[in-house]
């Protein structure tokens, strides 16, 4: 058969959108690709469509082509030009015989798992490619609040909290003078790894993120510590979004 010269690296297409909520909260879906020698990991947001494609033409002849989920459930089966959809996927997938691509519609958390493109011949089965698909819900909005402020002519001490619906809140205390800011004590381990609270040059930032979305709330440091407008804190005491 002509399917032995295959390419393990496939493509995933995902239409991303950017939405703005008010002045501070922003949701930005991401599509991250992590490739291995024989499989790829995909992160996709719930309620979106996932497209898997086989980039090279495959001559099937009398062989059977399958898209499988978790190595046991057939999604579709193609034999001699006839497509057989699994009952579980009949109304959820579009399959294109001309290029063997598959679109899984409106993915949910339960769709996380291993997707395999496979050709079954008389003598052996050949795996064309494997995807490790991980479906994540978008993160919830966050609220940045100022818990306390102590101002003097030369310094400013303040404590802020970052809160979200589904994760434990975190708080940080900072001390600023007319040139720099620093955390009042070493930052404790965050109880929620997806939640971060830090300073930029001019802002206090609460960031909530995962692999597929990002929400944040910000406040200007000048509003919390009203030194001269030209004299603001310059030391950043946190990080931005982690990519795993």
From TrEMBL:
Q: Name the keywords, alphabetized.
A: Glycoprotein, Membrane, Signal
- UniProt keyword Disulfide bond present: no
- Where is it localised? Membrane
Q: Where is the signal peptide?
A: none
InterPro entries in the record, alphabetically?
CD2/SLAM_rcpt (IPR015631), Ig-like_dom_sf (IPR036179), Ig-like_fold (IPR013783), NK_rcpt_2B4_Ig_dom (IPR024303)
Membrane-crossing segments per the record: none
- Pfam families per the record? Receptor_2B4
Record keyword Cell wall biogenesis/degradation present: no
Q: Which Gene3D superfamilies match?
A: Immunoglobulins (2.60.40.10)
Show where the Natural killer cell receptor 2B4 immunoglobulin domain sits.
Answer: 55-133
- List the record's Gene Ontology CC terms alphabetically: membrane
Protein name as catalogued: Natural killer cell receptor 2B4 immunoglobulin domain-containing protein
Give the species this sequence originates from. Neogobius melanostomus (round goby)
Q: What is the lineage of its organism?
A: Eukaryota, Metazoa, Chordata, Craniata, Vertebrata
């Amino acid at each position: 058969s002509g399917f032995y010269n295959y390419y393990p690296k496939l493509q995933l297409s995902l239409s991303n959108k950017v939405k703005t909520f008010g002045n501070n909260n922003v949701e930005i879906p991401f599509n991250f690709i992590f490739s291995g020698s024989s499989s790829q990991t995909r992160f996709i947001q719930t309620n979106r469509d996932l497209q898997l494609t086989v980039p090279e033409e495959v001559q099937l002849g009398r062989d059977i082509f399958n898209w499988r989920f978790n190595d046991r459930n057939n999604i579709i089966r193609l034999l001699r030009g006839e497509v057989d959809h699994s009952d579980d996927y009949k109304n959820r997938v579009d399959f294109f015989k001309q290029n063997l691509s598959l679109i899984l519609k409106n993915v949910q958390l339960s769709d996380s798992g291993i997707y395999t493109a496979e050709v079954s011949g008389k003598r052996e089965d050949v795996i064309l490619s494997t995807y490790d698909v991980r479906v994540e819900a978008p993160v919830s909005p966050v609220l940045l609040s100022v818990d306390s402020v102590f101002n003097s002519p030369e310094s400013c001490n303040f404590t802020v909290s970052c809160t979200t619906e589904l994760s434990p809140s975190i708080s940080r205390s900072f001390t600023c003078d007319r040139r720099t800011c620093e955390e009042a004590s070493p930052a404790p381990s965050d109880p929620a790894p997806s939640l971060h609270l830090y300073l930029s040059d001019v802002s206090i930032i609460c960031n909530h993120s995962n692999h597929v979305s990002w929400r944040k709330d910000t406040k200007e440091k000048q509003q919390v510590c009203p030194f001269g407008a030209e004299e603001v804190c310059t030391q950043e005491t946190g990080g931005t979004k982690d990519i795993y």
